[in-house]
Amino acid sequence: MLGFGLSIEPQLWALIFVMVRIGAAFVAAPVFGAVTVPVMVRVTLSGAIGVLVLGTHSVVPPAQVFGFATFLAVASEALVGLAMGFVLQIAFAAPMLASEIIGISMGIGFANAIDPQNGRSSPALGQFFSIMLTLLFLSVNGHLVLVEMIVKSYDVLPVGGAWLSAAQLKNIAFFGGYTFTAGLLLALPVGFLLLCLNLVVGMLSRSAPALNLFAVGLPASLAVGVVALAMAFPAMGDFMLVIVREGLAAVESLVF
Length: 256
Fold this sequence. Notes:
- By secondary structure, the protein is mainly alpha-helical.
- The protein has one domain.
- It has helices spanning about 10-30, 40-55, 70-90, 95-105, 125-140, 140-155, 165-205, 215-255; strands spanning about 110-115, 120-125.
- Strands 1-2 form a two-stranded antiparallel sheet.
- About 30% of the residues are buried.
- The model has no long low-confidence stretch (mean pLDDT about 80).
- Belongs to the FliR/MopE/SpaR family.
């Protein structure tokens, strides 16, 4: 009996309890948390990984379903899962910041499209960066590494003692600064060229006021930006791999 006259199979209750942390991580994490991923797929994956956790760890869920201790345990499990997914989501926000910097300098900041990852309107260049980062994340098996860290998190943060410390929460907050650093570094090659172009166009407009700034500067910024993106994208792709590794390392430091 698990409270209020309710009874449930102990194995099923343990599986449902384990799925809280896994499901919360999938809701907050990139790729798994995309709106294009059906809820049934997330629940199925959470259940499959939950069976793996039960097979490799000794999980003892709370004795009662409806109890204050159970609510606290569920909240702690959800907090750990959301923190793991949120830290990785912070790293994935860096390309969006870089796209804002480059797009405004190129004059295409107004070009928006629906992002399939979150279902919201985002800059077209940012959507391109986001898709490339997602493909790189999958190419280096980042999704499998994330699943592995979720499973191994039960060794360091077992059920019943999964509350995050103040130092861990501070590390999550400080890791938010990495988004701005990585975004600026990602946009630096193209942004520097566009800055130099804007300085040249500014000097031309001062020396020859008859030149229309919008008629000359905007097409030049767009052309130089496209060429610079084509030339700098191999280096930007390498840095995107660094962003993926830093995000996974931040998740690892959170639970290990």
